[in-house]
Amino acid sequence: MSRRESYRRSLREKGPFSLKMHHPKKIIGEIMKIAKTTVVTMAPTTPVYDAVQIMSKRGFRRIPIATPSKKRLTGIITAMDIVNYLGGGEKFEIVQKKFSGNFYKAINESVKAIMTKKVISTHVSAKISQALRLMKNHNVGGLPIIDDEEHVKGIITERDIVAFFAAKVSGMKVEDIMTTKVVTALPHMSIIEVEKTMVQNGFRRLPIVSQNEIIGIVTVMDIIRFFGSGEAFRHLKSGTLMQVLHTKITEIATKNVVVTTPDMDIGETAQIMQKKNIGALPVVHDGKLTGIITERDFFKIIK
User: Is the dihedral of CA 62, 63, 65, 70 positive or negative?
Assistant: First the structure.
């Protein structure tokens, strides 16, 4: 029996995290007990730049889009959507075609133009196990929580899941669930090159490697904070942002990288991620990058 299967069995035997179906009253960790119930939403007509500012200041990687009056869920916008739009992927075609490459006009476009309209959500009565399966099966990092009228009542994210695991998991090693095929960035790469790499590969964070050593890490939120900065805004107004997007990624990346090792217990790893408020840890063995463990990798222990 593999360690992963052995650990799943131990979780089921412990009870609170059982993935079996139980009457809601018997489940300790109901969805609303670990979800955030104070949710920031935006109207579909909100300008993209306002979304950038909120994400940058509040540290949000996703914001539900809802009707202003009744908060009825109509979409969701993520940090990756914005990176895609402002140079990283196919949504950049809107900037080029509709606004002739004028970033200043483009950031005043409403979020409904780039948001995801078919939102994967869960109900206020859902069990934790149901939410986890939804996030795993649809490969999403967050679920808005809605009531019978589709009003937004909360949100659960990968970070909430890591916090949940941090108090419970043990007996498995980082190497059991880490991602071994790591997409990295090089120090000479520009912001726009990294944007494209993130969008093409679907990764929100890239370790920066030089001569097989990690010298930094860049995340989608680093790029969002860059777009939300005063300097970037000045370039947006003057129409010279494309020039700034060729800045080396090391200018905005995190230099002091927290790492882990393949043999570290995943419970301890989750605690480090929770304490440091970070979504991933590069995995290093003998000074070399051998993998990365992210919040989403914790879903691998779920059937």
Answer: positive
Q: Report the percentage of the chain scoring pLDDT > 90.
A: 67
* 20 and 157 co-located in one domain: yes
130-189 tens-digit pLDDT: 998 999 999 999 999 999 999 999 999 998 888 877 867 668 999 999 999 999 999 999
At residue 10, the pLDDT reads 57
What tokens were used for 263? 């043999």
DSSP classification of residue 19: -
Residue 186 is part of a domain; what is its CATH number?
3.10.580.10
Q: Based on the domain organization, do 134 and 157 belong to the same domain?
A: yes
Supply the DSSP symbol for 100.
Answer: T
Q: Which runs of E-coded beta strand occur in 173-279? A: 205-210, 213-219
Which residue type, as a one-letter code, is found at position 142? G
> Residue 8 carries which side chain, given as an amino acid letter?
R
**116 neighbors 130 (Cβ within 8 angstroms):** no
- Please enumerate in sequence order all residues whose Cβ is within 8 A of that of 297, keeping only pairs 6 or more positions apart, or say none: 177, 178, 179
What range does the domain containing 244 cover?
174-301
Q: What's the CA gap between 222 and 73, in Å, rounded?
A: 27
What does the angle CA 82 – CA 84 – CA 85 come to, to the nearest 5 degrees? 65
pLDDT digits (tens, 9 = 90+) for 196-220: 999 999 999 999 999 888 999 999 9
CB 214 within 8 A of CB 232: no
